[in-house]
Amino acid sequence: MFPRRIPYNRAMSNLDPQRHDAEILILGAGPAGMLCALTAARRFKESGLPKGGQHILLVDQGRETGRKLRASGGGRCNCTNQNAAPAHYLSKNQRFTAQALARFTPAQFLDLLAGLGLSAHEEDQGKMFCDQGAAALCETLEKACRKAGCRFLTGRAVTAVTPPAEPGGAYRVETEHGPLLAQRVVLALGSPAWPALGGTDIIARLAGQLGLPHAPARPALTPLELSGPEGALCRELSGLSVIARLSLAPDSASGGAAYTDGLLFTHQGLSGPAALQISSHWRRGEAIRVDLAPQADVPALLREPGRAKSLARSVIAELLPRRLAEARLAALPTGLADRRLAELSRAELTAITELLTDWRITPKGTAGMARAEAASGGLGTEAFSAKTMQCKSLPGLFAIGEALDVAGELGGYNLHWAWASGFAAGQAL
Ligand SMILES: Cc1cc2nc3c(=O)[nH]c(=O)nc-3n(C[C@H](O)[C@H](O)[C@H](O)COP(=O)(O)OP(=O)(O)OC[C@H]3O[C@@H](n4cnc5c(N)ncnc54)[C@H](O)[C@@H]3O)c2cc1C
Q1: Which of 51, 64, 274, 346 is deepest in the core (most CB within 10 A)?
Q2: Atom of ligand 1 nearest to the CA of 194
Q3: What percent of the chain has pLDDT over 70?
């Protein structure tokens, strides 16, 4: 049976304010945790609960809140995306995101920003960036939570959560500095991605303790690493950026994921939006097809009568930056590049088309969690309500943000999921 809302104060006799206990503990003061706290605190105030946000305590291991949020978008904070919809999320159950996304749209987030005195502008592909930057957004959100009465306990790593021994009792949260008790607990502890910014594997450990389903975390949105001749070519071209289409085979686990976006050559391999996006789907040993001229119809271009006298080399130079053109030309049979298109056989024209549109690379791996902007995997969504984010088997326990098995594409989708799921739980607490 789905848990009903527990009346407040029923378990308050167990709680000791001197020990920082609270009615609601939000574990993790990242974007999901803070938006959840702010939503709940404002709701309490509107519904006349005398203490408003003082019912809420946010606990975080970090000395400062929202370290990933502060670093987001290289400090520019790609805070949402106008196209937020389930199709932009990786999850065992992609539809899980639908209700929360419908109840908290990008427009609602932008309204919330405006209410906080901040603004955002749109760039390509629906990406919205906070005009005041990532650090300002994080600080403003924290300030708004404090103003609404919420309290913060930072520098406290959570190590365990034990459910109440009897219905309506308190959850016990173990931290490195002693236990905390609360009637309701929100798991907003993120994923193991980018540990230098606070990513930890605590969610996997809590899933084990609480008997909740958990999909192993995998790095997402992380650079690709190449070795051998391909690695050497990337090193040679390091710093160069082009628009490319990266795709996986239609019969791969990803069902043929494909992205057309910026591709950046680096000393380690490939980065930039297209490489980061495909890394979320790539499995070790799989080949990635790189189309270096996605905006051109190369076979048609090579057959244009007006180009019959052009050298193959000059057509390639027209489509690719000079350094890349030279590097790719080396892969053609000797002499072919310096022949006129009219002289080439069908097989030779195909070889040129493939050189431009079907470069096959097999990364040796990825930069892993160390440089992953997100992680797929996390708490199994089947254990949670898609409307409230509350656990179906443990009343009073909620999970939001990246702690759940939901990972967004690049472009503001991850932060939007943090906001939307945080809002859903904040409405239900
Ligand atoms: C470098 C970088 C850039 C990014 N840029 C963007 C972007 O521009 N747009 C976008 O949409 N997404 C971006 N992301 C992804 C986005 O930041 C995350 O998806 C988002 O922060 C997830 O929010 P969250 O609140 O669920 O988790 P988090 O932001 O990870 O917050 C979880 C909190 O829990 C705390 N915590 C973890 N373990 C413990 C523990 N054991 N005890 C106590 N506290 C703990 C952490 O300190 C952290 O404060 C970026 C990520 C990175 C790493």
Answers
A1: 274
A2: 53
A3: 95
Q: What is the pLDDT of residue 140?
A: 98
d(CA 59, CA 54): 14
| Average of per-residue pLDDT across 354-365 | 95
Residue nearest atom 3 of ligand 1, based on CA coordinates: 72
Measured from the Cβ of residue 141, the count of other Cβ atoms closer than 10 Å reads 25
Distance CA 361, CA 275 (A): 12
pLDDT digits (tens, 9 = 90+) for 310-330: 999 999 999 999 999 999 888
3-class DSSP assignment, residue 393: coil
Residue bearing the CA closest to ligand 1, atom 51:
373
401: tokens are: 């943000």
Query: Once rounded to an integer, what is the mean pLDDT over residues 177-203?
Result: 96
What is the best residue among 205, 206, 415 to mutate for testing ligand 1's pocket, by most ligand atoms within 8 Å of CB? Answer: 415
Are 151 and 33 within 8 A, CB to CB? no
pLDDT beyond 70 at 182: yes
CA distances from 266 to 194, 231, 234, 271, 339 (A): 19, 9, 6, 7, 32
How far is residue 138's CA from residue 135's CA, in Å, rounded to a whole number? 5
Residues with CB under 6 A from ligand 1: 28-33, 59-62, 66-69, 71-73, 77-78, 157-158, 188-190, 193-194, 197-198, 200, 202, 373-374, 401-403, 412-415, 418
Alpha-carbon span 237 to 70, nearest angstrom: 31
Among protein residues, the one whose CA lies closest to atom 10 of ligand 1: 412
Structural domains in the chain plus CATH codes? 12-219+374-428 (3.50.50.60), 224-366 (2.40.30.10)
Distance 300 CA to ligand 1 centre (A): 46
What pLDDT is recorded for position 238? 97
Ligand 1: atom nearest CA of 412 is 11
pTM score = 0.94
pLDDT on residue 334: 84
**SS3 of residue 241 by DSSP:** strand
57 contact partners, CB below 8 Å, separation of at least 6: 20, 21, 22, 24, 25, 26, 150, 151, 152, 153, 180, 182
pLDDT tens digit sequence for 73-130: 999 999 999 999 999 999 999 999 999 999 999 999 999 999 999 999 999 999 999 9
What are the distances in angstroms from CA 399 to CA 43, 121, 139? 19, 30, 23
* Atom of ligand 1 lying closest to residue 81 CA: 11
Nearest residue (by CA) to ligand 1, atom 6, is 72
